[in-house]
Prior knowledge:
alpha/beta, Rossmann fold, Dihydrodipicolinate Reductase, domain 2, nine-stranded mixed β-sheet, six-stranded parallel β-sheet, globular, disordered N terminus
Amino acid sequence: MSPKPLLASRRDFLKVSAASAAVASVAPGAWASGYRSANERPVCAFIGTGIRYGQLVHDFLKFGPGAALCDVDSAQLDAAVRQFHSVYEGRGVAAPTPDRYEDYRRILDRPDIDAVVIATPDHWHVKIAIEALQAGKDVYSEKPLTHNVGEGQLMLDALGRSKGVMAVGTQQRSNYQFQTAAALARTERAGKVQRVTCGLQGAPSSDSLPKCAPPSGMNWNRWLGPAPWADFRSASELPQGGYGSEFPYSRGHAHFRWWYEYAGGKLTDWGAHHVDIALWGLGKSDASMGRFTIDPKRVDHPVEFKDGYPVDETRLNTATGFDLNVKFEDGVELDIVDRSERLDFDNGIMFECEKGRFFVNRGKLKGKPVEELEGEPLPDSAFGDLYNGLTREQAEKNGLADGVNHVRNFIDCVKSRQTPISDVASHHRHLTVCHVANIAMRLGRKVTFDPASERFVNDEQADGLLSREPRKGFEFAT
């Protein structure tokens, strides 16, 4: 369904221009240093105002004004506007009132908006991102960017045809601890990497959820969008204006991650972070990674599956536990496991090399190879390799240095037109491993995938799970 022109008159255009001028006129001190000129402050809009919005609006409003918010739930929008105002007020600045929409296409048709921040459920990311690029917007999308492998192919095609800058919210790439771990692996400081283990935690299960009406003010049809039609279900009545992970299990809002119809469970939740760093460190970010085989040695699903599809539509259905082995052609192995008794470390990533091992997560970076960095630091080139060939000094100038905010990197790239550190191409390749792992778990058997063709090896049944047709009325733009 292609967006329809919504700024039909000169009056509409002048109204939008006036709104843009209002947000651009906020005192320069409200924005981060280095972004004081009005033409350096991109005007952003937020599409999706759920569980990630609170952090994103706080980060993005450091670098420029926000003009509009969009959500299919009016209660979510009410809460989002309050958060928007609180960010400005926390900096001692009078807050403009953002325009609010249920239909994201109204944002894409506004000439005053430079970039969109997509924080919808996973199954909406690609459709909105493609249409935003076609509308001339730059795009920051929450991870995982795609619901399936086929969507990643569509996304890369659309980005290649556009002049847009696009980044993915895999913010661990902008963390110095994870950068150092990846550089240690790439430089073989502890010898060749033989195995990497990603501990992700398991996912929840639920009792049967009764069919019920969606919350008042929520457009359930638009929430589902490209996903297959399903009745709304909830363990109990949802409170208005919140819907965080602490609220009752349901289809929709914070718990969408635990339904294969909308997401991929822990494999595309934490896996989109940890598997990303593991493969970044291994240098396996394109088709040259070669074929890989995934063996689901242990899979715990809360419902039964037939031909890769859950047979019970009333319960959360993504894997609650797993022990997966990924073997690459070069002999390197990647294990992806929940936090079971098999692990002797926290949620995070363990690199096992010929001469030792080291561990990284959001709280620590440890191991003998890490301790040895004090006497023999990594060379600048080790980090330059991560930054697509930039030297350490160049990386710092382009916002890719230690501790630099992930959003700042995107904003820098909007100005420079360079590729962000969390680029779409490598994210697609890394996330494909997670998508393929989910297919192996859904089928309950070993599979082999060829990144060159982006197909399984002699496995038509598995190939059938690589993509899906969007629901009528929510087709993807081409």
